[in-house]
Amino acid sequence: MWCVVERDEILKKVRELRPWYHNVYLGDGIWTKDLTDPENISPGADVPRPLWEAIENVIPQELRGMRALDVGCGAGFFSFKLRERGARVVGIDNDQGATVSFIKQAEFCTEVLGMDIDFRRQALLEISEDDHFDLILFLGVFYHIPNFCDSLEKIYRLCKPGGFVAVESQVAPRSLTCYEGKGFRGDLTTYFIPSKRIFNTFAEECGFQIVREFSTSEERYFFLCVRPSRSISMRGRLPSRGSLRRVAKRVVPGPLWKRMKKIRGQLLRFNFRAFPWLSERPSQGSAPENKAGMESDSGSLARFCLSWRHGYGVEYEVLKSEFIRAAVRDDNLLELFRREGPLPSGYGVGVDERCIEYPWLIAHTVTRPERYLDAGSALNHDFIIEHPSFKGKELHILTQAPEANCFWSKGISYFFADLRDIPIRDNYYDTIGSISTIEHVGHDNTDYTRNEAHRENKQQDFLLCIKELRRLLKPGGTLLFTVPFGVHRRFRTFQQFDLEHLTRAVEAFGETLMSDFDFYRYTASGWIRAEGSDCATCEYVEWITHQRDEWPEPFPVQPDFAIAARAVACVRLVKL
Fold first, then answer.
1. Contacts of residue 368, Cβ cutoff 8 Å, sequence gap at least 6
2. Which candidate in 144, 314, 518, 557 could, as Cys together with 570 as Cys, close a disulfide (CB 3.0–4.6 Å)?
3. Count of Cβ atoms closer than 10 Å to residue 41 Cβ
4. pLDDT digits (tens, 9 = 90+) for 127-184
5. Can you give the C-alpha Rg of the chain in angstroms?
6. Architecture of domain 49-263
7. Where are the alpha helices (DSSP H) in 388-543?
8. 429 with 373: CB under 8 angstroms?
9. DSSP symbol at 516
10. Do the domains 49-263 and 350-575 sit in the same CATH topology, yes or no?
11. Yes or no: is domain 350-575 CATH 3.40.50.150?
């Protein structure tokens, strides 16, 4: 929301604060950077929008209740993006090499945009280590800091256990040291350009685990680094500064690099113990055997993921996302969902029901061109819309309010409406998918929309939603939906369905050519296929349904390592 500032005053101040590097949109057609103005830094470059578009889907969409630090914030472009996602943001910049104060630019943008962000003129090493953050952005900064080893150590200490650091940096085939006064390609504020291998070494020596890395443009790379909730390094402690300096000075000779590869292998094996079906590739139509000790190892990782005192949501969401991305790419696993076979032993220990819902829906989505409605926006992720099952589909995404993820450039259509009153004509869609959405209808949805009109208490309105979705389907069209299942419970934002509520939903849909039900139940050994009667006594993990500021600390780890639903019903209805 923009505050009331006269347009002419804004334009005047934008000109006064030149030169601009960040191109921030201030509303009313006003951008901070005139791309044709040669006085601006990197004229003609819409900085840093291309970088944000490359990494925005890696950053968690929901950051409410979390603290974020934007190192080298400039005029605040990335800080504003994090604030839009709900984070409490601190942005720092020491104005190195700037002819105008970046912090003054950021504070001006904050005033115009009406956002509450703490911008500080401060160097990274000056931040008190009493300050801790769930998310730290370190974008385009690493190579501008002379004492880069100290900077990574500092970042590690500022990052909460379970939090993560997003790093983007210039890279070189071989690391380059840019001596004082020499710089790099005319930039005298560049001191050291790492190779990918050297950066991985520095980060892992600090104690980080790198979970994602990819190229953002020519000679530039992005690294997503997680600080584990507990140390899993060989030494179990942060290395000394001298240790990292020796690594830098020696440019990682062969023996040390072999040791670092051994550490990386241990981290990968540690993850695969939790996800045995990823490391033990099943033959077609078969599930891998559970090796001795696999369940206890899986439990260890579940505790590792869930027993944080700080920053729930960051490390867990990263691990869960990687898990689901792998699951929906696994043809053997999808075939097990498709033919209602038993799941691999140890599947999804400590992971919520999304690890069932996404592969189930994809397994039952017909690979052909068709009109497809995502009712609830659960499919609004790159790894779903780019999946082969959705190739050639006319995909529409319906939700109540705009979200940070937006793939309109890929031909995805978005519209915003209530699932009980959808402004689309009858018999329009071939397939409708709705993951974990119907149970929210008629409840308090202000967490998602921030609109008080959506704070409701209409428990039976899920029936109106089902009828409306049937209206939109063509004859012979398919509705695929999932809901948490077990003992009927009403929570603030949703309800857990029992057999009675599920039956009423199917009856509300009306006559069908086919109705099919799949039930999956969570156990301490992972998710298993089950009968509905086996799931009837399953209870939802209640504390996670409360508002974030009401969550207990430390978070109570369940005996079975469950994080949300302990059973899920997956329903397929074909309209007569």
1. 392
2. 518
3. 17
4. 998 889 999 999 999 888 877 778 888 999 999 988 889 999 988 886 665 545 555 6
5. 25
6. 3-Layer(aba) Sandwich (3.40)
7. 446-449, 462-472, 499-509
8. yes
9. E
10. yes
11. yes
